[in-house]
Amino acid sequence: QVQLVESGGGLVQPGGSLRLSCAASGFTFSNNFMRWYRQTPGKERELVAGISATGGSTNYADSVKGRFAISRDNAKRTVYLQMNSLKPEDTAVYYCKAPLIGTWGQGTQVTVSS
Fold first, then answer.
1. In CA terms, which of 9, 24, 34, 75 is 20 to 30 Å from 53?
2. d(Cα 15, Cα 25) in Å, to the nearest integer?
3. What contacts 33, CB < 8 A, 6 or more positions away?
4. Is the distance from CB of 86 to CB of 111 less than 8 angstroms?
5. What pLDDT digit, counting tens, does each position of 63-88 carry?
């Protein structure tokens, strides 16, 4: 059974940092590129960052470039999203996904507010 479990969200002040984790099971994690998305109420899910299967290639939405960093540990079957210099507009539910697999996790809420 394919499963993705996101964690690490929470409430943080503007300018703060959070590190999200996504633990994967039920498929060959090391063969799959991974992506982080986010969604706010009333809006479509937005692609935030992606990473290749080996971790050697990454890409980011313009809105987070220079502030967020995606990484992965294939031995732990986990993908991470380090979020720095957080802004109120980063507030959203964050999801990870293996696009070739198609399963979504339950998401983790990130709220940036003073």
1. 9
2. 33
3. 50, 51, 52, 53, 98, 99, 100
4. no
5. 999 999 999 999 999 999 999 999 99
